[in-house]
UniProtKB/TrEMBL annotation:
NCBIfam families: fliM_switch (TIGR01397). GO terms for molecular function: cytoskeletal motor activity. It comes from the Bacteria. The keyword Membrane applies. Belongs to the FliM family. Keywords: Bacterial flagellum, Cell membrane, Cell projection, Chemotaxis, Cilium, Flagellar rotation, Flagellum, Membrane. This is Flagellar motor switch protein FliM. The keyword Nucleotide-binding does not apply. It comes from Sporosarcina globispora. Residues 254-324 form the Flagellar motor switch protein FliN-like C-terminal domain. It is found in: Bacterial flagellum basal body; Cell membrane. The lineage of its organism: Bacteria, Bacillati, Bacillota, Bacilli, Bacillales. PANTHER family: FLAGELLAR MOTOR SWITCH PROTEIN FLIM, YOP PROTEINS TRANSLOCATION PROTEIN Q. GO terms for cellular component: bacterial-type flagellum basal body; plasma membrane.
Length: 332
């Protein structure tokens, strides 16, 4: 029996059938105990777990935010891009789901194998081009007869946008996105076999008053080397042993860049407040340091070295003679 909730009338009918002998309780139990068979479609092989799909969704949510900022600056109009869905389907099903004439950007992502496909709805693409040409961002769908200039403008616009893909993927792979091909007819584009599983991330896109979809198709062959990095365990784990040398090296670099004051103390003297208040030009203060004694050199107010004064290139200088014992200790 299924797990659906029965109404009161259905419950009464079931009890009546059991009491009159129309239905055997033993047969009912036997039917429940039989092993259920789940239908599996080998043409729609699920090669990614829900956990990995969620990780890809998070990555492309960041990509959508970066694209929103990029296109807002380029087009100087209202732009809003967000992730609508993320599914794994056969490549053939994806090709059938997109328009017969559309904007297709084929992206190579070295060092990963394979290529990524970015499909942009023609309404969105033409709205972008109209804004770039100084228009209001209106859309005219005539993708079947793109001129050479229109093709160049569109391909250059999306090629600059791929830099955001590099940043969005930086957490799982260091890729170098390159525009490999620009096509308008999906029937002429055969990236992988029809039954190959692909992940399709659909982005809701609004530019001015025009709305449409941007679909990103990622074949399994592209993601295969980095699948372990898509799990929650990878994102949450903190391997301190691996990170410790990097942290120490960063601290050392920052310490080496730090500036510290170095002072040379000629001597000290104690005088009364009355004498201090009566000091005038030409007065001499006697120090407790003899002229033939070495001077104390302080680093950040801590005695570190002893040295002797002199000149270097007509400038006053101090030559270090020795280190101060106990100078490493920070007396607080």
């Amino acid at each position: 029996m299924s797990g659906e909730v029965l109404s009161q009338s259905e419950i009464d009918a079931l009890l009546s059938a059991l009491s009159t002998g129309e239905m055997d309780a033993d047969e009912l139990k036997k039917e429940q105990s039989e092993k259920k068979v789940k239908v599996y479609d080998f043409k729609r092989a699920l090669r990614f777990s829900k956990d990995q799909i969620r990780s890809l969704t998070r990555i492309h949510e960041n990509f959508a935010r970066l694209l929103t900022t990029f296109f807002s600056a380029q087009l100087r109009t209202y732009v809003q891009i967000s992730v609508a869905s993320a599914d794994q389907i056969p490549y053939e099903e994806f090709i059938r789901s997109i328009p017969k004439m559309t904007i297709l950007n084929v992206i190579e992502v070295p060092p990963l194998d394979g290529r990524i496909l970015m499909e942009v709805n023609p309404n969105i693409a033409y709205a972008m081009m109209d804004r770039l040409m100084g228009g209001r961002g209106t859309s005219i769908n005539k993708v079947d007869n793109l001129t050479e200039i229109e093709t160049k403008i569109m391909s250059a616009t999306f090629e600059r946008a791929f830099e955001n893909l590099r940043e969005a993927w930086s957490t799982i792979a260091d890729i170098d996105p390159l525009l490999a091909d620009f096509e308008v007819n999906p029937q002429f584009l055969q990236m992988v076999s029809p039954n190959e599983t692909v992940v399709v991330i659909s982005l809701n896109t609004t530019i001015g008053e025009t709305s449409g979809m941007i679909n990103i198709c990622i074949p399994h062959v592209v993601l295969e080397p980095i699948i372990p990095k898509l799990s929650v365990h990878y994102w949450m784990q903190t391997d301190k042993k691996d990170r410790e040398p990097e942290v120490i090296a960063r601290l050392e670099r920052n310490i080496h860049k730090a500036e510290v004051p170095i002072t040379c103390e000629l001597g000290i003297s104690d005088i009364a407040i009355q004498d201090f208040l009566s000091l005038d030009i030409g007065d001499v203060i006697e120090l407790n340091q003899a002229i033939d004694q070495p001077l104390t050199i302080k680093v950040g107010n801590i005695p570190k070295f002893i040295g002797q004064p002199g000149k270097l290139n007509k400038k006053m200088a101090i030559q270090i003679l020795d280190t101060v014992k106990g100078g490493d200790e920070d007396d607080e």
